[in-house]
């Protein structure tokens, strides 16, 4: 991106474009094939600053590829931080506080918070019991398949069956479902191996399902991977390495302006506050 604020750049097709016009009485009208909403994005200054003490540099100097290893480790952590913000970010505070917000909730507004604010009708927060959606025998949903299926129904019907939807499922929900499989089939060596290799069920509610790093443990999201974007300003990436003898370390400063975007809001649905029913 070149601007701090602006229109989203989604260029896909958001619904049917085929029809027929009686040109004897009516002009043909080209349909807008862009996203159904005209929401905007906003980028915020984001810092990823790290340091390396002289003592560690000296200890690792024997590795000829030390610089590459270090750089790869830093880049991996920055990537994981961006995912964490995407799933936990609530706001962009002027001054962040890692102690108070250990999941980086105050660095930026992530995808889940954007959905809560912009499409609350596509976010299920509670069922029969206020403040929670219950999963299990006697709950709002008997099993995870039913929960994912119902979440999918909140996706706009014009994009619901495009073939690219997936389910992102919290680890606690997946673990509970896997525990049921262990209870039923875990005594058979071949079945136990399949369960541990996560090959038994690749889909829930008819959708390919995934567990991703730092995704909240009690949430289900239905969307497509390419619907979740991180925008950054091209000219804002800055990197500077400083040798700081006063602190006996080398400091690496990285900054950019970035923000989180759901490209097609109508292609996103979420069920949160899922609580497992105790047997």
UniProtKB/TrEMBL annotation:
A Pfam family per the record: Phage_cap_P2
Highest rank taxon of the organism: Bacteria
InterPro entries: Phage_P2_GpN
Protein name: Phage capsid protein
Species this chain originates from: Pseudomonas savastanoi pv. phaseolicola (Pseudomonas syringae pv. phaseolicola)
